[in-house]
Amino acid sequence: MYRSRGGFFVPKMTRKILSYAFKRLVFAVPTILGLLVLTFFISRVIPADPAALVAGEMATPGQIEALRKQYSFDKPLYVQLGLYLGQLLRCDLGKSLYSGRRVFRDLIDRFPATLELTIVAMLVSILAGVPLGIVAALKRNSLLDHVLRGFTVGGLAIATFWLGIMLQLLFSMWLGVTPLGGRIGVSPPKFITGLYILDAVLTLNGTALLSAIQHITLPAITLAFASFATITRFTRSGVLDVMQRDFILYERAMGLPPRLIVYKYLLRNAMISTVTQIGLLFGLLLAGAIVIEMVFDWPGLGLYAFQSIILSDYQAILGVTLWAGVVYVTVNLMVDIALTFIDPRKAEI
Amino acid sequence: MSGLRLAWIKFSRDRLAFSGFLIILSLILVAVFAGVLAPYPEDTFSIHPAARLQPPSLTHFLGTDSMGRDIFSRLLFGARVTLIISIIAVGTSLLIGVPLGLIAGYSENWLSELIMRIADIFLSIPQIILAILLAQSLGPSIPNVILALSITYWPWFTRIVFAETRSLKQTVFIEATEALGANPLRTTVLHVLPNVSSSIIVRSSIGMGFTILTAAVLGFLGVGAQPPTPEWGVTIAESRQYLPDAWWYATFPGLAIFFVVMGFNMLGDGLRDILDPRIRRGFE
Amino acid sequence: MNQNQKETLLSVSCLTVHFYTDRGVVKALDRAELNVSRGEVVGLIGESGCGKTTLARSVLRVLPPGGRIIDGTVLFTGKDLLKVKENDLNTSVRGKAITLIPQDPFNSFNPVFPVGTQIKDIMKWKGNAQDGKEIREKRILEMLEQVQIPSPRDQLKKYPHQFSGGQRQRFMIAMALLPGPSLVIADEPTTALDVTVEAQILQLMASLVLGRGISVLFITHDLGVASQICERVVVMYAGQDMEDAPADSLFSNPRHPYTRELLESLPNPEGSIKDIPGEVPSLVRPPEGCRFHPRCSQATDHCSRQRPEKAAVAADHWVRCFHPVG
User: Fold this and answer.
1) Helix axis angle, A12-40 to B110-123, nearest 10°
2) How many Cα atoms occupy the beta-carbon half-sphere of C242 within 13 Å?
3) How far apart are CA C172 and CA C147, in angstroms?
4) Which of A5, A238, B83, C138 gives 20 to 30 Å between its CA and that of B240?
5) Does some domain include residue B180?
């Protein structure tokens, strides 16, 4: 069952996981391709006059016409598609009306802010949601369980942007304990990754770290709210489901310590359904980022998208959509592969 | 006792589903009778600058907005807007998604692959972002919001129906009826639909909640309903510049959204518990 | 009397267990009685739903949610397990003095951990506390060779789904024997296996258990299997024990009407299976008295009013019946 690979012994299961990962990667390509075609369709075929949209509301007919020629909107569709795909391969997403720069440049610049916000939000929802979900399941039908269930059902019903506004009203405007907006109140730390908190830690910059944390608190909590609710629910139902399985019965009957059963054996199985959700939740976070960044003046892709909407900066909106799609597909791919490490049966397909 | 009556009794005993049902019922009543219930029905289009930004009082139940319009009345009419948008959007995605799911599940060739791939592609972008792009491409208006929402939601229905159809098709039952001369397509459809209807109903209810939230976001961002439409998201957007003083301006529309979406989620959850026979407690 | 020669290891008496469900209270066990001596292999047979598994789970106190032990005593080496504190039960009885070979080896393995992890944990927590890691591993490998798992060291890294049913059951047997138990409860260990594999597993179990003084409570609904491996057999029906006799005695000369019908229902050479008239009763509203009386050809009025006491009809052969046959 061991095969020698250049001197290393590779267990069969590991080989299976690697080949599964490779297969999924290959399959992601047509999805992204389809995504590109879809956005092409939406941006070129659906609007009445694509050139006018790209040119913006302020453009004169002459400018629109020039743009039409420049972007080849007058050529047949299949030619346009070819040119479009070629442009994308060169990372040419057009020019932004707002900044005047290449859209791609804008996206790269503003991505770290959104990434940081999304990661923190994800961490918050996992670190809060998983333990609470477990407790709710273990103490099923207790008061705590009912309170949590009510809380999570409610959490999914709150409009994220409204919650942000309310929290801002309470904590920033009335109580004055959190900043009104922005990403940091002092000079940002030296650029290493673009993630302020990480960079501040790496460069041992205490003031920047404190300010960054203060500023990220409210937006991250708001953003995390809906995904926290989902994670709690899925963890709870995952644990309840696993608790009834035969192997848990066997482990109980064989007298393994209850702590061991819950935290080692039960948890990993229960996590399967939760981790599956994380990919989808990431999409929710990306979407929520748009409004959150707008409410809290967070200089990320979300705010960029919003400003582009206001100004009808069409190329920019298109660019953000593409970017979001690619990131989303990538994250789901990573989650999928990560799942095979938790549950090796997945790789057998 | 007929099956329907039995189901109703079971339904009314489930507090979660029933409360959700009551909330939605009141939403529908409010939406339909907004003209009668609202103290200032003319405030959907007329303005009273003198009475602007007044806090909640006996004359103006929830206060007034930046144009002096009664917020309570506008909320009631906003219910109408919200309901129309969501019902049509979910209904349309159902009408697109379910047949596609049936076709994809029944056929086992390239057509099925194609449909599911397209569904995957649509699902590969977070829905709101796609809806924003669509709304922007089409131009901001309510009909375009409905269109954008329908286009982004149909894959969910397709997935459910596809899975159910496919699994049913592979049962011996279909082969048997086929051997007896029955049209397999017709049999499949006739037998899949009852089985999958409960999942469709649950997903529709949750979809309503989701659609209402998304529509509100689109309104808030300015790509959906436009002022002076009393849509809840639009109202919250208007309110921002008057915070923190006019807190009522932002608070109440959000609460309205909350209650309505909560209602649909509770109904969907409750229905899922009732309709899904696999969830059983106790000794098996 | 019966077990003077051997010491009684497990003595279940008057065990009554109820399940509280949506559909009402299921009276799964009614004053059930069972004895296992040291080194004895006792079979517990009966149709599905007769309470065999419930009895086993009650001994270990691992009933599913909704289950409650209403009354009874379970004496194990002198202590009443139903009164022992949960913590003590878990550390010294479960998985140590009494181990389990489960019915479905596939679902009884945790699917997301390698087999080795689970075996090592059993050994770590249920084996000798003084043994170091190397000794534990050595003993695991030795045991795996005894259950005829080839190249055990490599196999430990694999996952449960990579094995066949027979191999998984071998692992289960190993895990049941490693802690050095005095009693092994085997809950239908061959039901989920192929017939050919079944014979191998039975033989393996027999060879490992006999001569070591390990008692076995062998639960099965397969009479053929019971006759092969058990010294003594207890017959259960609808939550009550009906007959308790040495295996050859029981199979050659069954004295309880139910046992007799059960044996006659075995496919005979002409290929016909004789069904026992009637159906297994609902345990929510079980029959009064002897629960077999509605289907019994020998039943009288008395049978419906009072449950028979356990009485000897021959040397060491016990029945609960007012009208034993044969």
Assistant:
1) 80
2) 31
3) 10
4) B83
5) yes
For residue A291, give every residue at least 6 positions away whose Cβ sits within 8 Å of its Cβ, in sequence order, or none: A160, A161, A164, A302, A306, B217, B220, B221
Domain extent listing, chain A: 13-89, 111-348
CATH at B276: 1.10.3720.10
Residue B110 touches partner C, C-beta closer than 8 Å: no
Query: Could you give the C-alpha distances from A99 to A57, A95, A289, C115, C324, in angstroms and in order?
Result: 16, 8, 21, 59, 99
B114 inside domain:
yes
SS3 A71: coil
CB B94 within 8 Å of CB B204: yes
Residues whose CB falls within 8 Å of the CB of residue A42, separated by 6 or more in sequence, listed in order: B133, B134, B137
CB C239 within 8 A of CB C29: yes
ipTM, two decimals, is: 0.88
Contact criterion met (CB below 8 Å) for A330 and A24? no
Q: What is the residue range of B137's domain?
A: 7-44+60-280
How close is the nearest chain C Cα to the Cα of A125, in Å?
A: 25
| Cα distances (Å, whole numbers) of residue B125 to A38, A39, A323, A332, B172 | 10, 10, 9, 11, 38
C-alpha span between C103 and C122 (Å, rounded): 18
Give the C-alpha distances (Å, rounded to integers) separating A236 from A223, A229, A243, B237: 21, 11, 11, 36
Q: CA nearest B70: which of B86, B50, B52?
A: B52
Overall number of domains in chain B: 1
Residues 6+ apart with CB under 8 A from A90: none
Q: Taking each helix axis as running N to C, give the angle between helix B71-106 and helix B15-32, from 0 to 180 degrees, rounded to the nearest 10.
A: 120
Distance CA C130, CA B266 (A): 55
Distances (CA, A) of A18 to A21, A136, A154, A331: 5, 36, 41, 17
Within-domain flag for B221: yes
The token pair at A82 is 């070819």
CA torsion through residues B59, B65, B67, B70, sign: negative
Taking the Cβ of residue C95 and every Cβ of chain A, the question of whether any pair is shorter than 8 Å is answered with yes
Query: Given CB atoms, is B242 within the 8 Å cutoff of chain A?
Result: no
Measured in angstroms, the CA of C51 and the nearest CA of chain B are apart by 13
Tell me the pairing of strands A2-5 and A8-11: antiparallel
Give the type of residue at A281: L
Local confidence pLDDT in tens for the 349 residues of chain A: 444 444 445 567 778 888 888 888 888 888 888 888 888 888 777 777 777 777 777 778 888 888 787 777 777 878 888 888 888 877 777 777 777 788 888 888 889 999 999 999 999 999 999 999 999 988 887 888 888 888 888 888 899 999 999 999 889 888 888 888 888 888 888 888 888 888 888 888 888 888 889 899 999 999 999 889 989 988 998 898 898 889 999 999 999 999 999 889 998 888 888 888 888 888 888 888 888 999 999 999 888 888 888 777 778 888 888 888 888 888 888 888 888 888 888 777 6
Chain B nearest-CA distance from C21, in A, is 5
Handedness of CA A82, A83, A88, A89 (dihedral sign): positive
Report the CATH architecture of A111-348: Orthogonal Bundle (1.10)
Total-model pTM: 0.81
Residue B105 in any domain: the answer is yes
* Number of other CB atoms surrounding residue A243 within 10 Å: 19
Question: Which residues in chain A have their CB less than 8 angstroms from residue C60's CB?
Answer: 253
Backbone angles phi, psi at B186, to 5 degrees: -65, -45
- The pair phi, psi for residue C74, each rounded to 5°, is -125, 95
Pairing of strands A2-5, C98-101: unpaired
